[in-house]
# Entry
Amino acid sequence: VGHPRSYTALDIVSRKKNASLVIPRQIIMYICREYTDATLENIARLLGKKDHSTVMYGVQKISNEMSVNSELRGNVEVILKKLNVNQN
# Structure
């Protein structure tokens, strides 16, 4: 994941596919799916994506990566804490 960087909402919903935006987008997908009742379709629409399958892939990728990457898991936990999300 590297050094934290700030992104604007426009960066996140843009069609840009550079790696520095893909992971943050996928983290948003993961958090929306796991900690809200938003549907895959709603999350896709929120992020300017055409298809819910993009969200399914992103959620699964982050979930899998968190199981082996403690830095990513820690970063997601920090985000959840800042959002005041109950992680239990």
About this structure: The first helix runs from residue 9 to 13. The chain has a mean pLDDT of 88. DSSP finds five helices and no strands in the chain. The radius of gyration is 12 Å.
